[in-house]
Amino acid sequence: MLMAGLAAAGAAGTLAWQQPWNKWGADVATAVGQRKAMTLPDASELVLNTDSAADIAFTQAARRIDLRSGEILVTTRPDPAPVARPLLVGTTQGDVLALGTRFSVREMEGRVRVAVFRDAVEIRPARGAARRLVAGHQAEFAAEGVAPAVPTDDSAAIWEQGMLLAQDMPLAQVLAEMARYRRGVLRCDPRVSGIRVSGAISLADTDAGLALLARTLPVRLVRRTPWWVMVEPWG
């Protein structure tokens, strides 16, 4: 059940842009709306979220996953090599060192978000001081440094199950997340962007998710084309 209450207006809207160029030549990639799970050579598990791309390089010195775009979930396993190698996730802003852990890494506009669900990681910004991040917390970082950590929980990785769990989330943010899983444009009218939403929404069928929002909130869906949807106030 979705619950909503009015709040102050937020962002003017959301726009879904797809940029396939950053996937060309990637070792692994997913299309918009697709998720992919795989087992790495050391038995660690890697899950790619929608519209993501990564390169994988396991050498004698290190185990490395370079995230080109999108989001990944990593569950590490002990290294079977005679000499244990570090497992690193490379990003546009720096590296994330796994410390026997389960964690997610998401490339965002000019920053990277890391969430830790088990054990810990060490965030290593390209030009800033390293910082340890422990389970139950997430933090964003850029090349210059790491922002303060905030609490998180396993719901931050529920996308692995094809779901979005909104907890008192502004409608504009809900739509921004849904837009990652569909092609085309999804916009939110500023007059309804601050409506608070709580509940579980399927990401496997975003049209059904939008229809659910329209049934439970004071909003309507305006479709200019099958690929262009505006969420507006009802009436």
UniProtKB/TrEMBL annotation:
FecR protein domain boundaries: 27-122
InterPro entries (alphabetical): FecR, Ferrdict_sens_TM
Transmembrane segments: none
Highest taxon, organism lineage: Bacteria
GO molecular function, one term: sigma factor antagonist activity
Full protein name: Iron dicitrate transport regulator FecR
